[in-house]
């Protein structure tokens, strides 16, 4: 049985769009949805007495956010089991911890900061959750047609075949649930083509193209048969991986990438391709850990 889906909500329009998307995803998966609102301010507010009209504005706002999100979810899918939690801690910390028991965590591409009205671009909560969560993380972004499943296509980026299994399996399952096509993309580059007026020897191009196609076949061979109903298109594309994935995102309902996390002096970090798609994808992005 699949585990519950968690969605972070903070009252912003972007997070409410994420709630809508998470409701549809939970219905597709047949799992409960848990709405989580977390704020470090709660640990201070909870120590202050607040009764009737004297309650603080922060407390009133806090109670309104999850109630609004739950009501919105019930309106969209009355039969879906929806619960909510208010947690007195940093949002990224809370969502990362809660990810250990979730099938996936859904977040919006932007959100409100701790100061009312302060909008934070992707790079704070969403990036931190994507870099540290135990479960897959889905960032809801892009145009309405992409978010609403208008293209009937899921895309997955494949780098090294031996590291792609988790992302490929997630993408195939997502395509199966949507009745969509899967487009598997691997980008390759020929060093001879990176210099001015490069030689265009057919054999060099053919070698790299063939090797890229073999990587796609290898990544899909063991997993695709478990999702036989899904039509799979293989695309070996010459160029930068981030450019190839951003291009395919324009006509996709979901873009899936593996999380190659690297340990740095400031902790776990996502690679440059992950950053590029999280910031610029035209459709929702699922980051699936494989380390």
Automatic annotation (TrEMBL):
Signal peptide (residue range): none
Domain UspA: 3-141, 151-289
Entries under SUPFAM superfamilies matching the protein: Adenine nucleotide alpha hydrolases-like
InterPro entries documented for this protein: Rossmann-like_a/b/a_fold, Universal_stress_UspA, UspA
Pfam families linked: Usp
Chain ranges passing through the membrane: none
Family: Belongs to the universal stress protein A family.
Cited PANTHER family: ADENINE NUCLEOTIDE ALPHA HYDROLASES-LIKE SUPERFAMILY PROTEIN, USPA DOMAIN-CONTAINING PROTEIN
Protein name: Universal stress protein
Organism annotation: Streptomyces spectabilis
